[in-house]
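Tutorial, part two.
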Amino acid sequence: MLVVQTRIEVATHWDEELEMGFEQRSKTRLRTAVRSGEEIGIFLPRGGVLREGDFLRASDGRVVRVCAAREALMEARCSDPLLLARAAYHLGNRHASVQVLAGAVRFPSDTVLAQMLEGLGMRVHVVHETFDPEPGAYAGGSHQHSAEARHSGRIHDFAPRKEAGP
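Running the prediction step on this input gives:
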């Protein structure tokens, strides 16, 4: 089995490719397989996320290139920047991983989140793409919740707002 414990900077040559979805790329301890079929064990420092194009060095010296796999996601689109900002806010408020695009946000498939965004006035559809969400304000650090920080679980009203005229 190929064993990886080290990330490396950019490499111009690699020996293996490791294709994974975002959830797998978020794990620092993982047993899976590279594209050739050989098993690989990943043992990286906790707290990091592997991104498309990252490089790893195996204990035998081989270089492994990380590839983001296409996965089923939901994409919410609109042409109104204010509505897009509201959608991003509500997704973030639910701690959903979000990839921000021009005029759209992508997130892991979740019908409850899709219904919430449709209620705001967004157009939501399923896409099969790679997922590279924002790392967040706490990337590289830890983000802990205290017991007191929990919300009451109250359902919020997500109907589109009517803006007041001048």
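The radius of gyration is 19 Å. In part three we will examine how such features are distributed along the chain.
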